[in-house]
């Protein structure tokens, strides 16, 4: 128990919280039918969780340093389980979205404390082995999510996607209390509440504005007000961080080109690689008539390619500069998006396979190396902040990617089907269109929307890759012939604030 207990407890929580990022994807059509949910409602089912996780991750890490990491982790797990129960009991889209956001709050508390807890228990080779197991579990959660979601949705029903978390949470809490010792950060730490609140408002306001733009238009009052609120929050966040004694993010890091490049790459990575996936799942089940299980299995080429590539990269490309693995991986992901943008009214899911494989290979390059690149861009004392920032921007990139690409899909479909389609989409989602338009026209419009979203994702991936290749340069020590301390920095970050390391995809 002394050896495996803490690792098992932490990995159980990690598996659950990362599983819930992807497990809902294949169940979205069933949720839409059961709850009479619109396409924007489905966007928020995905985004409510990811946004809460991203917006509160750094603040949760700082709170845990003060109150105790085990205590915050357990509280987060209990909150996550409670929210999962509420998700399964939801009888309307608004209730489901609210419960998903509450899930994200609990997940932030869990993820922010995961690596610090491991770092406090394990040392030396045991710590390296524990981080390896944790990374493998994280990757498995991303791979298993769509398939498990399909099995549950097609079997007992989509509500069990959330209820399955309850027994796992009970075991995770029991193991954590029994096997994981309490730990805290340095004395004198304070929570940056101003930074936490303003960042959360900025992230939420931006995502809400983009989603509203898909239904109301970019110049609608609700859209413009949301963008203005987000801009005001960002304007307040900057001075708040400059004045804070213990800021969520030291803004001086943004003067370092390598750090900025890594953040751009991490932000684009999750959004570009996975932001269109929910709409591909809706297309496959709603218009191609696939079952949830089969819809989940179609994503296996991507997840298997990502896991195999990640293993090869970890073993064979250890000394390759991060600018090449991250930048090159983003180029592969962008190429995969372009390869998927070939859909038309007669396409089926097999047209996506080559692009899925390319995205998976690119993911295998980026996921294991992007956190190490961030840590190598800062001194070891700030490794925890850098690792927490990577996890934050990755989840934020995914949330905004889902919002942006959903708006692109909706706008293109509205242009192809006419203005009436926008009201139908807003009221009942893609499935509601089937009774209003001819099947061939609807399939053509949806395929056109997906193509536009995939092309947008591909272009964003290319831009991010170029920025990474230009900005991310080896540290001066490495340029002079000394290897950059990415490995030690990663090991140190595992016991530092906010949790460094690479979370699973997305």
Structural overview:
With 506 residues, the chain is mainly alpha-helical. It is globular, with a radius of gyration of 21 Å. The protein has helices spanning 5-22, 28-35, 39-67, 69-89, 93-121, 124-154, 160-163, 165-179, 193-216, 221-243, 257-274, 277-286, 292-297, 300-316, 322-340, 353-366, 370-376, 383-417, 419-428, 439-471, 476-479, 486-493.
Give the helix/strand layout.
Blueprint: H1 5-22, H2 28-35, H3 39-67, H4 69-89, H5 93-121, H6 124-154, H7 160-163, H8 165-179, H9 193-216, H10 221-243, H11 257-274, H12 277-286, H13 292-297, H14 300-316, H15 322-340, H16 353-366, H17 370-376, H18 383-417, H19 419-428, H20 439-471, H21 476-479, H22 486-493
Helix pairs in contact: 1-5, 1-6, 1-8, 3-4, 3-5, 3-9, 3-18, 4-5, 4-8, 6-14, 9-10, 9-18, 11-15, 11-17, 11-18, 11-20, 14-16, 15-16, 15-20, 17-18, 17-22, 18-19, 18-20, 18-22
